[in-house]
Amino acid sequence: MKIKSLLCSFACAIMLIQLTGCMSASSDTASQATTPQTQKAQPPTIRSDSEALSTQGLQAYQQFDYDKAIALYDKAITADSNNYKAYSGKGIAMAMRGNATGNKADVSSGIAYIQKSLSLYPDYVPTFYDLALACKINGQYEVATQYFQKVIDAEPDNTWSYYGIATMYGDKGEAKEAVAYLKKAIALDPQPVKEAARTQSHFDKIRSNAEFQPLVQ
User: pTM for the full model?
Assistant: First the structure.
């Protein structure tokens, strides 16, 4: 099952909100109960040479040169073992290579690298997408849906996460759910999504569905 058209570019910067406020010096104000605020974890700092190698790895990955991407990501990790982007990039490149070759060990190892990325920086949205896609390849649809939804929660206009969920429902022949998510993806980016839905085998089980057919015209 080839799923190259699920690839998309992510905005890699995540806005982290810092809460600030003024506190009175009076003992009455200081003694007032306050509600603790939950803050996102700060991302580890990545060395510039490692960051540059990650960028090269991403470029190779976007050209479907998975071997080259993995090699570059390995160099990035060697340069900086805290490079969460490189772990995630290597992981999805391995998973995609495994999908292309049928090597299930590549897919499993890829998922482990992506999980390593999340252990370093749990709030990195592109890693959510990478894990969703890798788990989808691995047939772990429930986990994949969970992580596609995490992307959507952070980026409501992320076309290919809606599409990713639609393809899983399509694979299962669940037309109503597949159509619902496909409509959301089409609303955001009509032509690429329609072309993908027309040509990919994910929707073969529902191609005769009366609601699906007009969507891809």
Answer: 0.80
